[in-house]
Amino acid sequence: MNKILGKLVAQKDCPEILVGQVDIQSYSISVEIDPDDCSVESATSLAEKIITSLKQYDQIARNIINRDLLETYNSDGTEKNQTGCDESGENIQNSKLSPGEFQKLFTLKSVGICGDNCVDILYDTDNLFAGHSVYVTSFEGVDFSGASAQLFDLESDV
Fold first, then answer.
1. Which residues of 32-62 are buried (b: 16+ CB within 10 A; e: fewer)?
2. Residue 150 contacts residue 134 (beta carbons within 8 Å)
3. Taking the CA atoms of the chain, what radius of gyration do you get in angstroms?
4. Percent over 90 (pLDDT), the chain
5. Which of 29, 47, 30 is nearest to 38 (CA)?
6. Is there a contact between 32 and 112 (Cβ–Cβ < 8 Å)?
7. Pair type for strands 14-24 and 133-138
8. Quick one: pLDDT at residue 42?
9. pTM for this model (two decimals)
């Protein structure tokens, strides 16, 4: 049992990958650690750093989502992805969102670690992007200065 990450178990179909669930702040998130080409201890250490400062990294990741995806949402999403019907059957179309409004619509779901330098933070988008989730990825460990946000269709991976 890890003091910070809790109980980590080997993934059934890929036993070198460790998975667990962490309850921290108002989140219950999954954690996945793939040592890749480093030691389990190095990958676990990176996961501990991220989880210990999750509030800080969550805010950094949300700022990156704003930087990389807000304009896309406001130019495309309000017309293509968010037109629908309300309970009465009337067509609705969401208006453009401010950065603060946009950030609040993302739900932190998981943290993934690959090796000793790759961090993925996954957010559910509440269908903002036609069912796609958003990953914020840093290839420099805890340094998110070069990190980026990208859309990912979880359905196509299953």
1. bbbbeebeeebbbbbbbbbbeebeebbebbb
2. yes
3. 17
4. 60
5. 47
6. yes
7. unpaired
8. 96
9. 0.82
